[in-house]
Each structure stands twice: as C-alpha cells, then as structure tokens.
C-alpha cells in the first residue's frame, strides 16, 4: 500500500514540477519567475525525500537539506539582485 | 492484514502529494503575483512537510532508525518560506507600484522600496570608508 501511495506522490510532485516549468516559461513578470524557481526547488526536495523512501535508504537527507539551503540562498540572491542591482553591497 | 503504521505513512504521502499539486496548480491558475504568492508558500511547504513526516514515521517506527533530520529540514523550510515570499513581494512592488499607489507611511520618511539605496543617501560616509580602504591598500603595497 505504501508503494502505491509513493507512486501517487511521485506523480503529483512531477506534475507540479511541470506546472511550475510552464509558469517559469510563460510568466509575464520577474517576480513570477523567481517564485516559480523557488517552488521548483521545494518540489525537488520533496522528490528527493520520496526517492529515499522508495529505495529505503536514509542517505538522501543531507542532499535534501543542502538543496533547501542552496535554494533559499539563491532565491534571496536573485531578489536582492533585482531590488538593488547588487547581491552583496 | 494492514499495518496501521503503513496506513499512516500512506495517508501522509497522499496528502503531501495533493498539497504539492494544489500549490503548483494555484500558481498556474491565479493571475496576479500577489495572488500567486499564496499558493506555493503555503500549500507546497505543507506538502513537503507531509512527505518528511511520512519519511520520519517510516524510518523511525518501521525500521527502527529514529532520527530528527527530517524535522530539521521541515523547520528550515517553514522558517525560510515567509522570508522568500516577502522578498518576492518586494520585487513585485518595486516593479509594478508607483508612489501614488500606496498610502503614506505613518512615520517620517518614505516606503523603503521607493527610498534610494543606502549608498546614495550616505555617499559621503561610504566614499570616506572606501577611500580609506584604498589609501590603506596603497600604503601597504610598497611595503610588501
């Protein structure tokens, strides 16, 4: 039963990634594109965690933690670049 | 026979998938950036939290390797989602809003998105410190 639920969650997050990609390509605004990139990062974290559940291994938690940190820093850096024209003043 | 722990893990997984999908569907469906901000920052974060909860329950209670790694990731995501949402809202306001669109702030001065960057306001100070650094570099260079 857990395998069926895992496949369902895999499908949901993959579809979410595709929708985010559509918004990233189409999105008329810079803020929308930054938001789409941020959401894609969070979806990838979920996919990594689900893959770790799938192969019954705990080795992927560091991966997801690092992706979370890098995703947050990149979002903030992109926003600072748009706001100030410079990342570190 | 259905294991109740496996049932709990499966429910968490299905809920997390639904929440993640709703977050991205909301971002496609809604029109304005201020509306689109609501979907991913809340629903997708909850979806990831559900996946991490399922992983923690599965590894902790079914395989006997109980750790708090997942809670760490959940805490980090729940802390950073509002910060990035506020930054993205600021980017939207800088790009789209003009001075007349916002009411006056209650205090002295201006909204921070319309105020000039701090370098322009304190150009004298910034120039002094930067010049000091430069002269220091010049004086140390011949010595080296």
From TrEMBL, chain A:
Membrane topology of the entry: Multi-pass membrane protein
Subcellular location: Cell membrane
GO molecular function annotation: sodium:proton antiporter activity
4Fe-4S recorded as keyword: no
Membrane spanning residue stretches: 6-22, 34-53, 59-83
One GO location term (cellular component): plasma membrane
Pfam families: MrpF_PhaF
InterPro entries, alphabetized: MrpF/PhaF-like
Lineage top rank: taxon: Bacteria
Alphabetized UniProt keyword annotations: Antiport, Cell membrane, Ion transport, Membrane, Transmembrane, Transmembrane helix, Transport
Keyword tRNA processing: no
PANTHER family, sorted: NA(+)/H(+) ANTIPORTER SUBUNIT F1, NA(+)_H(+) ANTIPORTER SUBUNIT F
Family: Belongs to the CPA3 antiporters (TC 2.A.63) subunit F family.
This protein's name: Multisubunit potassium/proton antiporter PhaF subunit
Organism name: Albidovulum inexpectatum
UniProtKB/TrEMBL annotation, chain B:
Transmembrane segments annotated in the record for this chain: 6-28, 40-59, 71-89
Keyword Membrane: yes
Keyword Oxidoreductase: no
Region Disordered: start-end pairs: 99-144
GO molecular function terms noted in the UniProt entry: sodium:proton antiporter activity
UniProt keyword list: Membrane, Transmembrane, Transmembrane helix
Superkingdom to which the source organism belongs: Bacteria
PANTHER family the UniProt entry points to: ANTIPORTER SUBUNIT MNHG2-RELATED (PTHR34703:SF1)
Protein name stated in the entry: Multisubunit potassium/proton antiporter PhaG subunit
Lineage, top ranks: Bacteria, Pseudomonadati, Pseudomonadota, Alphaproteobacteria, Rhodobacterales
């Amino acid at each position: 039963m857990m395998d069926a639920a895992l496949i369902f969650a895999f499908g949901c997050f993959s579809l979410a990634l595709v929708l985010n990609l559509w918004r990233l390509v189409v999105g008329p605004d810079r803020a929308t594109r930054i938001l789409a990139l941020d959401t894609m990062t969070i979806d990838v974290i979920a996919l990594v965690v689900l893959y770790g559940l799938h192969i019954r291994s705990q080795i992927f938690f560091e991966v997801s933690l690092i992706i979370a940190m890098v995703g947050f820093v990149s979002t903030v850096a992109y926003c600072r670049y748009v706001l100030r024209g410079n990342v570190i003043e | 026979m259905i294991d109740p722990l496996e049932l709990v893990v499966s429910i968490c997984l299905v809920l997390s998938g639904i929440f993640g999908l709703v977050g991205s569907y909301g971002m496609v469906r809604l029109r304005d950036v201020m509306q689109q901000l609501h979907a991913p920052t809340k629903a997708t974060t909850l979806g990831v939290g559900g996946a991490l909860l399922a992983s923690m329950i599965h590894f902790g209670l079914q395989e006997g390797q109980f750790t708090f790694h997942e809670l760490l990731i959940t805490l980090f995501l729940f802390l950073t989602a509002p910060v990035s949402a506020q930054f993205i809202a600021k980017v939207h306001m800088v790009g789209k809003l003009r001075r007349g669109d916002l009411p006056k702030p209650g205090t002295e001065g201006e909204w921070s998105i319309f105020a000039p960057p701090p370098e322009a306001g304190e150009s004298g100070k910034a120039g002094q410190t930067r010049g000091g650094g430069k002269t220091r570099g010049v004086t140390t260079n011949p010595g080296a």
